## 1
Amino acid sequence: MIKINLLGRTKVKAAKPKTIRGPSNTLISMIMAISVILVAVGVVFFWHRVASGQDADLTRQITRAKKEKIRQEGLLKENEVFEKRRKLLEARIDVIESLKKNQSGPVRILDLLSDCVQRTDGLWLRELGQKENLFTVNGWATGTPNVIADFITNL
C-alpha cells in the first residue's frame, strides 16, 4: 500500500540544541551593564559640574560688566558736566583776553589826551566820544583862541 500525504506537512527537522549559559556569562553581562550605567552617570555628573562652573563664571563676569557699565555711565555724566564748565570758562577767558587786547588802545588815547590837556593851560574837557575810528572831544577854553591851537598842536 502506498501512502500519499495530501496535507502537505513538512518534515520535522531536528531541533538545534539550546546553548545554556552558565552562571559566569550572566555575571559578566551584569557587571558590564552596571559599569556602562556607572560610566554614563559619571559622564553626566562631570558634564553638569563643568557646566555649573562655567555658569557661575559667566554670572560673575556679567555682574562685573554691569558694575563697570554703571561706573562708566557716572563718569560720562561727570565728563559732560566738566565739558560744559570748560566751554563756559573758555568763553570767559576769550572775553577777558579780547577786553585786555582792546583795552590798550583806549588807555593810550586817554594817556595822550591827559598829557595834552595838562600841557595846555585854560582848557577843560567835558566829553570824549568814539564811533569806530572817529573821536569827538567837547570842552571849554578860556582866554585866547591860541589855547585851542596849542591843544591841537600838542595832540
## 2
Amino acid sequence: MTFFRHPNTHPDFIALTRALDQDLNARYGTAQKAYDSHNRIDPIPTAILFYKDGVPLACGCFKPLDEDSRPGVEIKRMYVDPALRGQGIGLSLLSALEAWAGELGYDTARLETGKGQPEAIGLYQKAGYQIIPNYGPYKDMPNSVCMEKELK
C-alpha cells in the first residue's frame, strides 16, 4: 500500500474531506454543525492520500497540538471511501500518519471522533489508542470521543 504526502490544500484531499463531511452530516444531521468549525484546518503540509488505480480513495492529516507542553499532534480528517472499508486501509493510513509525526519529533497523537462512528472508535482502539477525557474544543461536546496514543 502506497501513501502520498501532500499539503491539505491538495485538490484530492479537499474532495475526500467533502465526502467525509457528507458522511458526517448523514450520521449526525444538524448536530454536526457544532463540529464544522473544528473540521476546518489552516493550510498544513502534513496530509496523506491513498490512491487505487489513480483514484483518490482515502486521506488523513495531522497538525501540532496547541495546548500541550509535550510535542504532540492531532490526527484529523481521516476518511476511507466506503467501498474500501474493512480492507486495512484505514489502519495503514493511520500508521503512516503516526510514522510521519514521529519523524518530525512528535511523541503523542490525539484525535476526536464521534459516538455515532463505532467503526472509527474500533479502528483507533485496534491501533492502540485509549479513550481520554475530552480535550480542547471538544470538552463540552457530548457526542465526542477523544483518544490518545504514545508514539514510538
## 3
Amino acid sequence: MTLERGRNTTTERSLEATLYDVAIVGCGPVGATLANLLGQRGLTVLVLDREADIYPLPRAIAFDAECMRVFQTLGIVDVLRPHLLVSPGMKFVDAKGRVLIDWSRPVDVGPQGWHPSYRFHQPELERALRQRLTAWPKVDVRLRHDVFALDEREDHVQLRLERLVDGSLHRSRARYVIGCDGARSLVRRLMDSTLEDLHSHERWLVLDVLLKRERPDLGDHSIQFCDPVRPSTYVRGVGRRRRWELMLMPGDDAATIMRPESVWPLLSRWLEPAEAELERPALYTFHAVVAKGWRKRRSLIAGDAAHQTPPFMGQGMCAGIRDAANLGWKLADVVRGAAPERLLDSYESERAPHAREFIETAVRLGAVIQATDAEAVRLRDEQMASNPQIFATPQPPLGSGAHVDDELGGRVARQPRLADGTLLDERIGYGHGVLAAPDWTTAAATALALSHPEVVVVSADSALAQAWLQEAGARAIWLRPDRYVGGAASDARALFELAQRCAPRKMR
C-alpha cells in the first residue's frame, strides 16, 4: 500500500464493496497512530483525510515518555531519534526574571525506559507515522476524501464522502468510525456530543522562527515570562527552530499583528530580524474543554475532537496519543471477538478524567502566566518569588474501567530493561502481557495457556524488573497493551481473575 492523493492505486479494494473493521476520519498524529496500532493488530482500516498532504509547518512541539513508548511499539523510534531533542523542562519567571515555578525535568532515562520529555517537529513525526502505515496491507489510506455524513446501521456505519479531486460522491462501510478530525470535529457533531467548558479561552500569537546562527544564550529550558505587560512563552525546538507565544493584549489589532512589521518589534527583546527567518505566525485561541460522550454506539472520538487544552503543559498531542493507545486494543479485541462490545464504554470512563486532570493543571498554570491585574500580579510575585514552587508532571490514574481500582491498577506501567538488554515493551508488542517473578514465570504461563494463549508472559529477570514486583508486593503484574497496569496478582487464582477482567475471552 502507498499513500496517495486521490485514488489508492495499489489495491483493488473498493470503498463501496468493503466492510472495514474501522474507519478513521482524520490522518493527523492521532489518527495515523491509531491506524498503525490497528493495522499492527491485523484489522482492516480505512483512513480518510480531506487534505492532500501533511501540513508542512510546526504545530505540536512536545511529547513525553508515554508517547515514545507508543512510537516504540510502532517501530518508528530509530526514524524519529535524529529529529528529537531531550527537553530539560520549563521555568516560570516574573517580570524581574525571578523564578516562580521550576519545572525542570531529568535529562536521563526514566522508569518508562525513555526520557521524560522530548521536543520534535510535527511534520517529521507525521511523515514517520504515514510511512509506517505502508507496512500494514489491510490499512487503506484515502487522501482528499471528505466525510460529510454518517448513517448508523445495525452492524455497521455507512460513511458518505466526497472525493475532492473530482467532486464525485462515494459511500463506504465500517463496523466502527473514529473521529480524529480535530477541534471542529464533524464526527463529534454528528454524535450530538457536547463540550464541557473548563473556562480558559485566551488569544495568543504563536511565532515559529528558524535561527540563522546559533543562539545558546536563549537557553534550552522553555521559559514562561509571567509579565503582565505581555505574558509570553519561549520554547526551544529541534535544530535551530525556536517558538515564541505572545498573549494578545487590549489594543492589539488581530488583523495586522501577524505582519512582519508588527512581529519583529514584539520579538525585539530576544531577537533581531537579521538573526532569524519567520517561519509561521499564527493566531490561536487556547481552549480548555472536554467532550461529554466519547462514544455513541459505533461512533467514537479521539484527540482534539474529545478534548482541548491550553499549551502550558505541552500535553495536547500527548493526550491524543494516549487516546489512540487506549482505544486501539479495545477495538481490536472487540472486533476479533476477544472482548464484549461493552469494553468500548471503558474508553471514555478511563480517558476522560485522566485528560481532564492534565487540562485543569494546564489551566492553573495558565492562570499564573496570564495574570495581568496589577494587584493580583504583585501578590503572586511576592508569594511565589519568596518560595518558588517545584512542579512535577501529574501522574493520574485512569478512571474506572478495564483494570483493578487500587494503588497500582490503572497507572502507567514501568518499562524496565531485562537481563538480555531488551526493554519490556519489546517482548510484549501491542498486546496483553504479564511480568512474572522468575520462579513463577512457567506457572503463570501455564495458568493462562488454555484461556488466553496470546498473552505474553515475561520473566522479571533483571534487578529493575524484580524491584518493581517487590514494591508492588506481587508475583505478577498484568500489563495492558496501552502500557497501563491492569492489576497485580500474588497467586494463580488472582492472575486468572485479572485475565478475565482485562482480556475476557480466548483470542480468535
